[in-house]
Amino acid sequence: MAENGTDCDQRRIGMTKEQHNGNFTDSSLSERKRRDREERLNIVLWRQPLVTLQYFFLETLINLKEWTIKLWHRRSILVSFLLMLAVLTATYYIEGTHQQYVRYMEKKFFWCAYWVGLGILSSVGLGTGLHTFLLYLGPHIASVTLAAYECNSVNFPEPPYPDQIICPDEETTEGSISLWAIISKVRLEACMWGAGTAIGELPPYFMARAARLSGAEPDDEEYQEFEEMLEHAETAQDFASRAKLAVQNLVQKVGFFGILACASIPNPLFDLAGITCGHFLVPFWTFFGATLIGKAVIKMHIQKLFVIITFSKHIVEQMVSLIGAIPSVGPSLQKPFQEYLEAQRIKLHHKPDSGVPQGENWLSWMFEKLVIVMVCYFILSIINSMAQSYAKRLQQKMYSEEKTK
Question: What stretches pass through the bilayer (predicted)?
């Protein structure tokens, strides 16, 4: 009996030591990951320009190599695509009566591809994302709305629309324009932009799905944060954690309609919905179908209505009047807005010989500079993000070498 008691005590002590060592290893590993992350975040152009550029180019070369290998493994698809492209090219250059349809399809294709591309840039997650709704789609809808109320029509001739909007020569009655007519005019570009944002949500889904199926630890901090959130779901207290858990529970329990609800409203946490769907192996078409309907149909009509109502003629006039009512600085602030609106009216009616200066308005100048700054910052964020990805590769390689020793 004494010997059995001694053996039990020894086993208990051994288990305690192993548990202690395991806890110590886990804490040291998490501390190392935290230090590595802080080290990567310091690799930015304004702190380490030479290292950042070097890592960026090396990461670009690695990605090109990986994409080339993937294309080589899918040679049949690549050859089929090239054959189809050759047929389309021949159709494009051969003269015939079909050319009018070719030109029409070319124009529509590039117009749709332009807005789909902007939508992808807005949500794909490269760096910080480019807020293309505020920079491109929102101003486009606003300009069409202002033009529709000024012209009392949406029959803008093509060309030059959409490069430049000019009122049609047809006679129209005052107040004949309807809200639905403006919605229909911008529906194609708005839906294409929404479809692009839905496509941009696919990388988190595929990453989480691949990690769950393979059982490997994913190389993504958002996914690691998601798994930590699941582990500490019971003790979550702060608002951000509770909001993330609410999105995760809605998507997991309600399924298609939960994803649709999250995608149909402006939701900065929707990346978490993609990770959740991938982690719980939600079928692809369930996730993408709900995301596409929510973002390209429901959410886009809500955003369109907001912009169109905000820039309707009477609302704009009231806003300009309210600006003029501000004490002291009101009239000086009101003047550039009035000049801008008057310049837009003249441009719509194609009267270039009027004496209103169009190139000196500071609102247009500020918006152009804002677009340039945002695009430049987006490019810088991509460079920083890819450089940090390469630094992560180096850290993981060093960690693997230490484990094999």
Answer: 76-94, 114-137, 250-266, 272-293, 305-326, 370-391
